[in-house]
User: Which sequence fits this backbone?
């Protein structure tokens, strides 16, 4: 496989392909036995009818305490959990949705590959960051066939939206590194609300802010409860700071250079004094800025291969890119409820999202 994505698959014979299809079928069967949240209530598996693909965006399944899209994420995660073998040199970008993953992927990719691909020749100029740093559960293992990742040269830069608590021992003991990014929960929620309603084409199925807000506070949020997702990585970063780097979107915004240096050091490729003098860091920051990425042709007109009935334009990943946009959507009462809930959840952890 070369990056960006041309995935080669492990199955070389028809028999092996059939065996893998059977395996994915078993995952699907298991997923149908999981509790679901749909149409604003948690439903038991037996009461859920098979639903069209768009409805599956509004329906989550709960797997080991976390909520997932049943179609687009869970089978892929189950396959990755059982078959992905991390190398000690791998770097995994780990995020809940809508916290700045696209940006972090661009920064990490540009930094890690800066010798082979100086900014002027970067693949990021012609490919969306999600194509350069593929996601394990949605893209690589989400196609009902196992990808052959052994052909990818080290260090492999991959990503996942799966919470730390669900990582199998094989990932945790592999020695690979995890870079985690999170964001103020109010902005995360608002960004996700916009995103979901972009993915849902049918106007009758668009999600109201109020319904989604109530669900969010109950913990029903893609790859959430958000607080558990964040705390999983937070606690791991305290125990194992060499293996888990914990970053916040707001800090990345307010001092991108400092955080980029931190990221480079963590990935094992610190910027040299000479590089700093030559402005290598600034060039990466410029190339990965919201305006630069958003204005690239590929991000204005390109599309993303999500398993939906319609194409998703790459522009969906570049909405506003601001801190505090929640204020334009949440009432003061909603904001207060969310703040209080988060304060409670994070109490005693040493983690906060004070503004
Ligand atoms: P994903 O989970 O679908 O990959 P993700 O990239 O994590 O999405 O989050 C998208 C958010 O990051 C968007 O925030 P908004 O909805 O509040 O606007 C998007 O605008 C923002 N974003 C994307 N690229 C950048 C960037 N280069 N700098 C800052 N923010 C960015």
Assistant:
């Amino acid at each position: 496989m070369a990056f960006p994505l041309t995935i080669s698959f492990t199955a070389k014979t028809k028999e092996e392909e059939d065996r893998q299809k059977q395996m994915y079928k078993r995952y699907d069967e298991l997923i149908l036995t999981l509790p679901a949240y749909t149409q604003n209530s948690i439903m038991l598996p037996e009461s859920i009818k098979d639903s069209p693909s768009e409805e599956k965006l509004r329906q989550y399944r709960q797997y080991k305490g976390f909520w997932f899209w049943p179609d687009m994420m869970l089978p892929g995660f189950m396959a990755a959990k059982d078959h992905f073998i991390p190398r000690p040199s791998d770097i995994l970008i780990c995020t809940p949705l809508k916290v700045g993953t696209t940006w972090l992927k661009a920064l990490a990719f540009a930094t890690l590959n800066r010798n082979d691909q100086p900014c002027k020749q970067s693949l990021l100029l012609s490919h969306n960051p999600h194509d350069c740093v593929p996601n394990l559960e949605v893209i690589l293992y989400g196609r009902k066939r196992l990808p052959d990742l052994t052909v990818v040269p080290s260090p492999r830069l991959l990503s996942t939206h799966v919470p730390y608590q669900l990582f199998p021992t094989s990932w945790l003991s592999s020695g690979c590194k995890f870079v985690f990014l999170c964001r103020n929960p109010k902005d995360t929620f608002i960004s996700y609300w916009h995103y979901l309603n972009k993915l849902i084409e049918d106007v009758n199925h668009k999600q109201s802010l109020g319904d989604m807000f109530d669900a969010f506070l109950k913990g029903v949020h893609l790859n959430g409860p958000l607080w558990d997702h964040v705390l999983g990585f937070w606690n791991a970063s305290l125990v194992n700071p060499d293996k888990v780097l914990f970053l916040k979107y707001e800090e990345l915004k307010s001092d991108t250079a400092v955080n980029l240096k931190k990221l480079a050091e963590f990935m094992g490729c610190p910027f040299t004094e000479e590089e700093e003098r030559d402005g290598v860091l600034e060039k990466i920051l410029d190339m990965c800025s919201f305006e630069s990425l958003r204005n690239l042709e590929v991000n204005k007109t390109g599309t993303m291969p999500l398993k939906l009935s319609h194409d998703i334009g790459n522009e969906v990943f570049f909405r506003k890119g601001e801190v505090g946009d929640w204020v334009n959507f949440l009432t003061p009462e909603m904001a207060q409820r969310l703040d209080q809930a988060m304060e409670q959840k994070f109490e005693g952890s040493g983690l906060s999202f004070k503004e």
In short: The two ends are 43 Å apart (CA to CA). The longest strand covers residues 177-182.
